[in-house]
Amino acid sequence: MSLDWIASAGAPLRGRVRVPGDKSISHRAVMFAAIAEGTSRVTGFLEGEDTRATARVFAQLGVRIDAPAASERIVHGVGLDGLRGSTEPLDCGNAGTGMRLLAGLLAGQRFDSVLVGDESLSKRPMRRVTEPLSRMGARIDTHDGLPPLRIHGSAPLQGIDYASPVASAQVKSAVLLAGLYADGSTRVVEPHPTRDYTERMLHAFGAHIDFAPGEAVITGRPTLRATDVDVPADFSSAAFFIVAATIVPGSDLLIEAVGMNPRRTGLLDALRLMGADITVESPREQGGEPVADLRVRAARLRGIEVPAALVPDMIDEFPALFAAAACAEGATTVSGAAELRVKESDRIAAMAAGLRTLGIAVGERPDGAVIEGGNARGGDVDSHGDHRIAMSLAVLAQRASGDVRIRDVANVATSFPGFIELAGDAGLRIESVSPTA
Ligand code: S3P
Q1: Distance 169 CA to ligand 1 centre (A)
Q2: Which H or E run contains 365?
Q3: Pair 275, 193 in one domain
Q4: Do 231 and 25 touch, CB atoms closer than 8 A?
Q5: Angle ∠(379,382,386) on CA atoms, nearest 5
Q6: Are 99 and 86 a contacting pair, CB within 8 Å?
Q7: CA-proximal residue: ligand 1, atom 13 (nearest)
Q8: Are 29 and 201 in contact (CB under 8 A)?
C-alpha cells in the first residue's frame, strides 16, 4: 500500500518518549531461541514488518512461536537440528539482516531453502555472505549476486578463518551462524569493529564463543539452551527524536531506556562535535545491554568533518545526521561511508536529492557527501521506499518554511510502527495522506 506524509514545522519537542524495541536484537532473539533447546521468552520484541517476517520464516520452518501480548514472543525452540524444511520460499520482506543471517543459519541444514525478499531487498548484494559461506562448503545459488538465494542442504561445513573485507555485522553474523554447524572453529576478523549482538547473545544461549572488538571465534555443534531476552529500545529509532529535539528551537525531550551499545551510538559523538546538548541520564543494564535515558535540548549546530572512525558506529544514522547537517552553520563532510549506497536505498543519493529539493546544497561523493547547512523550504520529496529516509526528511521538515510532502512512506512500518503517533505526541507535525499523482 502506498502512503505519503505531509510534514511541517511543529512545536518544540517536550515531555518523554519511549521508542520500540531494537531491530537487530529482535531478529537475533527469535533466530537463536528457535535453534535452542527449550522455551525462550522475548520481551520488548519489535513489532515491525522486518522482525515479524523473521518470526514467520521460523514458523514456516516448524518452530512454534506464540505472541501472548504485543511486543512479546514465546519461542518453542527445536534445537540445532530440529528445523524442518519448507517447500515454499522463505520471505524476508525488506530485511537485509533477516536474509543474510538466515543464509548462514540455513547453510548448515539438511534441507534446501529459498530466501526471497521485496523489491528493495532483491537489489541488495549477497556475495558478501555467499562468498565466505561457500568457502566453508555451503552451496548457495544467487541471481548474479542478488536474491533470491537458493541454499542447498546437506553440505558439510568446515570452520574457516575469515578476514572480512567489509565492516558488516551481518556478514560477521552469517559466518558465525554457519560456524554453529561447522566442524572445528570459525574465526571472523573485521576491518573495524561492528555491533556485537550475535556474539553476546550466542554466548548467553550457551555457544562456545570468544570475542573481542573486531574479532570472534566460535566452535561448532554446541547445544544452545533457551534464554529469555529483554530487548532494549532501538537507538536507531531514538536517533530521529534526538535530531528533531536538537534542531527544533525550545525543545527539551527525554527519550527513555535507549539501547546504548557503544557500537551503535556514534551519532551522539558526531552531534556533540556539532554542538548538540545531549545528556546521558541513569545509565543501567537491560537484558545484558547498556541502556540510558537521553535528555536532548535544542542547540545551534555547526558543520563538522565526521570522523571516519565513527562511521561503522553510526552507519544507520546517516540519514538523520544529514537532516541535522542541513540545519547547521557551515558545511558537514561525510566520507568513508560507501556502504550507505547499498542499504534499503542508496542513502547518499536519496538524502542528497531530498535535501536539494528543500533548498539545501549537497555535493555528492562516491563514499559520502558535503552538506551546506541553510534554511530548508517546503517541497515534494521521495523516500525511495526507505524507512530511514522518510523519517529523516520528516524530521528536517520541522525546520522547513513550508509543507514537505514525503512520498512512499509505508516502509516506516518495517522498523518503527507508530512513528507518526509518537512523533505527534512529542510535538512534531506529520500527517498521513493518500498519494496524489
Ligand atoms: C545490522 C547491521 C548493519 C545495519 C543493519 C542491521 C545487523 O548492516 O546497517 O541495519 O543487525 O547486523 P551491515 O552489516 O550491512 O553494516
Answers
A1: 6
A2: strand 362-365
A3: no
A4: yes
A5: 140
A6: no
A7: 168
A8: yes
Same domain for 421 and 336: yes
Which amino acid, 411? N
Q: Are 197 and 28 in contact (CB under 8 A)?
A: yes
417: helix, coil or strand? coil
The residue from 230, 247, 271 where one domain ends is 230
Residues 164 and 267 in one domain: no
Strands (E), 181-228: 185-189, 209-212, 215-219
**pLDDT > 90 fraction of the chain, expressed in percent and rounded:** 98
HEC profile of 321-354 = HHHHHHCCECEEEECCCHHHHHCCCCHHHHHHHH
Total count of residues recorded for the chain: 437
The closest-lying atom of ligand 1 relative to the alpha carbon of residue 173 is 12
Q: Smallest Cα–Cα separation from 244: which of 293, 299, 282? A: 299
- 143, 192: one domain: yes
Average pLDDT over residues 350-368: 98
Per the CB < 8 A criterion, the answer to whether 292 and 244 are in contact is no
CA separation for the pair 209, 225 (Å, rounded)? 14
At 212 the pLDDT is 98
User: d(Cα 140, Cα 359) in Å, to the nearest integer?
Assistant: 46
- pLDDT of res. 110: 97
- Residue in 295, 289, 122 with CA at minimum distance from that of residue 199: 289
Same domain, 93 and 179: yes
Report how far ligand 1's centroid is from the alpha carbon of 425 (Å): 29
Closest atom of ligand 1 relative to the 316 alpha carbon: 9
Is 316 one of the annotated active-site residues of the chain? yes
| Average pLDDT value for the chain | 98
Q: 282 is written with which cell numbers?
A: 541513569
- Strand 161-163 and strand 185-189: pairing? parallel
> C-alpha distances in angstroms, 210 versus 40, 205, 388?
23, 13, 33
What do you get for the CA distance between the two ends of the chain, in Å?
15
Residue ranges around ligand 1 (CB below 6 Å):
24, 97, 168-170, 173, 195, 315-316, 339
CATH code, 343? 3.65.10.10
What is the side-by-side strand order in the sheet with 14-17? Answer: 14-17, 252-259, 289-297, 277-286
Contact 292, 281 (CB under 8 A): yes
Report how many domains make up the chain: 2
Same domain for 15 and 42, yes or no, is: no
Per-residue cell: 281 = 541520564
From the number of C-beta atoms within 10 Å of its C-beta (0-12, 13-18, 19+), residue 154 rates as exposed
Range of the domain at 160: 23-230
pLDDT in tens, 364-398: 999 999 999 999 999 999 999 999 999 999 999 99
